[in-house]
Amino acid sequence: MVAVQMKDELLGRFNIAKRAACFHELKTAAWKMALVDVIKSCRDSINQISDHIEGATLYLDGGCTESFNFLGAFPLLLQLGVQAVCSLEKVSPLDTVVDWKPNFDPVRKIVIITSRLLSDAHRYILRCLSAHQEVHHCAIFTSVSEIAHSVYPDSPLGPDAFHEYESLLVLDYEELVKKSETKSKQSGDSSLLENLTLEDEGWSQLGPIEGSISQIEARSSARDLYEDNPVGHMEDVGQKLVVSVHHFPMILCPFSPRVFVLPSEGAVAEAYLSAEHEDSLSPGLPPLSSGSPPDGDDIPPGATLTAHFLYHLASKMDLKMEIFSFGNLSKTVGKILTDMSSLYDVGRRKRPAGLLLIDRTLDLHTPCCHGDSLVDRIFSSLPRRERTTSSANIKGSQTQPKHGYGNLHRRPLDVQIPFGKILGEEDSAKDNFRLLESIEAFLCGWNSGTSDAQIVDLVKLSAKLHSEKSPQPETELLNGSFVAMENFHGTPYLETMLDRRMKDGTILVKKWLQETLRREKMAVSVKTRPGFATKSDLQPMIKALTKSQSSFLRNKGIIQLAVATLFTLDESHSSRWEAFTSAEKILSVSAGDTSQSLAAQIGDLINKSVLVGSHGQKSGKMESSEGLLSFQDALLLTITGYILAGENFPTFGSGGPFSWQEEHLLKEAIVDGVLENPAMARLKFLDGITEELEANINKIKPEEAKEESLDQLKLDEIDDDQWGNWGDEDVDDNNNNNKEHVYGDMQLKLELRDRVDNLFKILHKLSSLKRRNIPLREEAFALDNDLSGDPSTSKGLLYKLLTRVLGKYEVPGLDYHSSTVGRLFKSGFGRFGLGQAKPSLADQNVIMVFVIGGINGLEVREAQEALSESGRPDIELIIGGTTLLTPDDMLDLLLGNSSYI
Questions:
Q1: DSSP states of 423-434 as a string?
Q2: What percent of the chain lies above the pLDDT cut of 70?
Q3: Can you tell me the distance from the alpha carbon of 623 to that of 620, in angstroms, rounded to the nearest whole number?
Q4: How do 253-256 and 259-261 pair as beta strands?
Q5: Confidence label for 524 from pLDDT (cuts 50, 70 and 90)
Q6: Lowest mean pLDDT among 221-235, 285-299, 886-900
Q7: Is the CB of residue 128 less than 8 Å from the CB of residue 100?
Q8: Sign (positive/negative) of CA torsion 358, 359, 362, 363?
Q9: How confident is the model at residue 237 (pLDDT cuts 50, 70, 90)?
Q10: What's the whole-model pTM score?
Q11: What single DSSP character describes residue 115?
């Protein structure tokens, strides 16, 4: 009997083990079949909080609005029952009136989703509650985890950050209600928001922009519920308010299911990646990898927040990461990730994947150049949305940081696609002419005796309309923006454009427009050449699709992309980009020659830009002419030249790649350029003397004109007064004034030369990237441009690194962080010989590459090329970065307001 029981038990265990093995095989097969999709993961996360947002008024901060726009999440939010979606930074009591549902109910629940730290968002949250006294429940979702809140430098919250904040918010709100009660008794005003002052806002004060919200008149219909007893109602709200704080990590901006960056106004993108020291270039870039990685208190907040974001992103996507790093800051982030995985991932079955972290400072040349990428040209040409908060208002708990860290202010990713400008170029003039013709015909038919004078007036008005451009405020412009979900018959627009060069991308847009017109049964007579797409080809097709509102709405995705492409093809933008490409090609060729040749080319570019600026200043146009580069453009090319020089020439004793004489000429050229046109050189190294420079140039102009007129006058009157000005009492005073003027000019020029010397210290750092970045010392990763100077034949570091990794070659400087292997050793298996060999990144079916500091569109295309050339179609490659970088962004990071110059 016992034997039979044991047999049955063994059979049962065998069956359970067999079923578990089968389940594991099925799950593994499902993992291999399932495609990694960042957009789907983000939308699934929104669905998971549907119970919270149903029937609520939803407030999004600037970073979340940017993220949800790329996700195309706003229709999804309305499907899930959200009453209204509002801006957290621009909160108003009238927000609850804007309800998309026909049966309006007074709002009783508010949901706030923020991409900032709770301490930074606190003043906005408090104002939101103050605007809606009738609210009973407030749910707050933040993209920063509870642990990240507690370890952030100078954070006011501890390990139990979310619960602490819930209590603090309720206390602050109750205190605010009591203060408002006292003020309302004195003034007889029942509005809590109107009685709110800057001193009542918790941890930090608002600047003038947000301060103006205290003057909003609360006229919401929901106020009828408490107008009879306002004070008692406010006390009741303060007691009954329930606050809950949750973590919502999936706040990112996807360009495609496998390419993403972080929102520009989020805590992770705004956090410093380096403190100011010898190896730092900008708070928005990692430090140079010249020594040991930062540790302990030296870890910048950006590294901590990036590590926590990547950990929770992998967790949401059900990925178990094998972590590799290339660069010092990446090594620090990898170590934090490894420690988190060892603590929280034990016993969890997830899909294996590889994570490759790369420091942006290992390759600054690629994002500084104007490569052949349609996406880069679109984002460089189109205007951007303004930030929801100014630099003075994003202070939060870091108003006076102890560790020297603040908040970086990046440009928003939301582009403004100018429909009104492109589509209204010719229509407005035609409409005005037709309107005048109609009025003229009406007047002629109404009273033929008096129509002549009125017709004359109409003719004058017509001439005025044709000669003058009517000002159009920005608020009246019809703007669009990109949504990653929009596609053409299943082909996502943005994802396809990321893999295209400029010519191929424009031809594809033209093809999509032609197919859309055929589907809409519209005929447009346009003479087109096969293999080319020009502005004259695209514009008639776009206008045909936008004639009817129904066609516009049906095809808004392709219309937005086509208008963005059309804007990029405009002469003012395309000529500037081509001028940059030509200049970069010249610099690349010169870098393969001699240092004298490269220095001469850089100086020539600076001098030409000064002439362009001077000509524009004399003609009254501050913008450079089409195809010609401005002084700031020349400085960006100087950065490129110094990076190339550091790659090709040995360093002289002065610390730079050029001789003292060559560098002296470059410095003098920059000094002369700033003195000639200070308005075109608004960069950080000129802070404090910009006004003096502009006053100096304004003073020189009339003096030069006066001298010219005096010289002419003297020539005309030389025979009339042989004694000249002898005996004039004002001569000595004029001489003294001239001496003081010369002394002031000399002081200004000496100060400017000191500033230019500081500028060249940054340029020397850039020229020493290969020497000071330890991973770049190997020849395999030198930024070797093709000696022909053709940018299309040179590849960035990301392409070279992926090529070597996928080819399973040895990569010097690539560190592996043992997550799985480390846990095996910690558990004791290593003592019995059960340890595993170091895994290879190429063995993973899913590889996520994240560039700390940002990526650009060219690198995404090159990474896809490296994957295609590797012959590994089974690998799913995900590419992410801190932000999307354009050449203008790099100028700001290295020499502008976001630099350490």
A1: HTTTHHHHHHHH
A2: 68
A3: 9
A4: antiparallel
A5: confident
A6: 221-235
A7: no
A8: positive
A9: very low
A10: 0.82
A11: S
Kind and range of the H or E element at 18? helix 2-33
CA distances from 138 to 82, 130, 174, 244 (A): 14, 12, 14, 7
Largest CA distance in the chain: 143
Q: How far apart are CA 685 and CA 638, in angstroms?
A: 15
Mean pLDDT of the chain: 77
Which residue type, as a one-letter code, is found at position 660?
Answer: W
CA 654 to chain centre: 36
pLDDT, tens only, 372-427:
999 999 999 998 888 877 544 444 433 445 555 678 889 999 888 887 776 665 55
Distances (CA, A) of 653 to 240, 657, 658, 774, 899: 72, 9, 9, 21, 26
Residue with tokens 């109602």, as numbered in its chain: 233
Contacts of 859 (CB under 8 A, 6+ apart): 366, 367, 796, 798, 799, 851, 879
- Answer yes or no: are the C-beta atoms of 357 and 323 closer than 8 Å: yes
How far, in Å, CA of 273 to CA of 303, rounded? 6
Length of the chain equals 901
| End-to-end Cα, the chain, rounded Å | 86
DSSP state of 192: T
**What SS3 state is found at 594?**
coil
Question: pLDDT digits over 611-643, tens only?
Answer: 876 665 555 554 445 557 888 999 999 999 999
Cα three-residue angle 588-590-592, rounded to 5 degrees: 80
DSSP state of 385: P
pLDDT computed for residue 624 by the predictor: 47
Edge-to-edge strands of the sheet including 109-114?
84-87, 57-60, 109-114, 137-142, 242-247
Any idea what DSSP says for residue 86? E
531 phi-psi bin (left φ>0, alpha ψ -120 to 50, beta other): left
CA 372 to chain centre: 20
For 38, 39, 83, 347, 603, the CA distances from 45, given in Å and listed in that order, are: 11, 10, 19, 23, 54
Is the pLDDT at 232 greater than 50? The verdict is: no
Sheet holding 876-881, edge to edge: 253-256, 259-261, 876-881, 846-852, 351-359, 319-326, 814-817
Whole-Å CA distances, 83 to 55, 57, 69, 141? 6, 5, 18, 17
The amino acid at 763: L
